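Most newcomers find our protein records easier to grasp once they have seen one. The structure tokens are whole numbers drawn from a learned vocabulary of backbone shapes. The record below serves as our worked example for the rest of this section.
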Amino acid sequence: MTTRDRVTPSVRAVKTLGIHPRPGVVRALVAAVPVLLALYLVARGWFYPLWPDTIGAIGHPFTADPDLDGAWGGPTLAGAWAVHALVALALQAGCLAIVRLLYRPVSR
């Protein structure tokens, strides 16, 4: 087996997601947008309770908090977090679909 035939674990992990590395600067720049959006959604969706505007409610996640009255899923921290996480999950699935389209296997 030559060095070229070996597949590194990171490449194997990426291929299990249906993403096959292919060259191209334009493709990489286009793919950077959904990848950065997915990373941002981790911070704003999944880690929503840790943001400064909601950290005050972390001690009572299932009771109403006046700071969360206008939040999606509020006025409880648990409800607001659940809605933010579900929206983030849906958008992250869309981001993954876009990246998979950009990096689908080459059909010959």
Summary: The chain is about 50% helix and 0% strand. The mean pLDDT is 76. The helical segments are 9-16, 25-46, 77-102. The two ends are 24 Å apart (CA to CA).
